[in-house]
Specification:
Distance between the termini: 105 Å
Helix content: over 70%
Oligomer: single chain
Structural class: mainly alpha
Order of helices and strands: HH
């Protein structure tokens, strides 16, 4: 086998690969530029501000007070 011919073919293949890699990198940059304006969806729990947290706290206190009174009335009716 002719070494010079093999080296030349390898250089040609390297040029083709460099061209393909550059094209793919350009596509990746363009795709990233398009996705910049699209916000990612958040997952998980939604956060509450202090006022909403306070409202939930008040509501749950009323709920549990009502449950305690109801349980107490049921207990009184059984004895």
């Amino acid at each position: 086998m002719n070494i010079n011919k093999a080296i030349r073919e390898l250089h040609e293949e390297k040029k083709r690969l460099d061209h393909v890699i550059a094209s793919l990198e350009e596509m990746q940059r363009n795709a990233a530029a398009l996705n910049v304006g699209i916000p990612e969806k958040k997952r998980g729990r939604k956060s509450m501000d202090e006022q909403a947290r306070q409202e939930v706290s008040e509501r749950m206190k009323k709920y549990w007070d009502g449950r305690r009174k109801q349980d107490h009335a049921v207990q009184q009716g059984k004895s």
